[in-house]
Amino acid sequence: MTVPILMPLATLLQAQYDPIREEIGRLQRNFQGLIWGFVAAWVILMLYTLMIVFRERKIRREMERLKNLVEEAEKKS
Q1: Residue 27's CB: how many other CB atoms inside 10 A?
Q2: Which pTM value belongs to this model?
């Protein structure tokens, strides 16, 4: 008589602590962290690239302005 009563209890305890499900959950959390890490890395890389492009444009405009100033100074001399 005690065996049929203990079977549902053992099944219930096993369902609460299932090392395979626990490991799958841990791996999913790690995978989500990895994905967010890659997303952050790409965002930082894109922001850095945009920053470099804008600086390069600004330097080109400044060089063009200085070139025009030098040409005007040579014409006046």
Answers
A1: 10
A2: 0.60
